[in-house]
Amino acid sequence: MTPGLLGLRGGLGGDIEGFRTAGMWVSLVLLIGLAVLPFLPETKNQPLPEE
Description:
The longest helix is centred in the middle third of the chain and has 21 residues, at 16-36. By secondary structure, the protein is an all-alpha fold. The model has no long low-confidence stretch (mean pLDDT 82). It is built from 2 helices and no strands. It is elongated.
């Protein structure tokens, strides 16, 4: 087995299904964020809050 394929085949604990699931979750969060963006309040020309 070549060292390049060692990580993908599980030799170093790599699980390709785990990467697929993680990528799907990250994409889902990104798409939800983009879908919610038009409904957020407009803050143009408003001063920053004083603390």
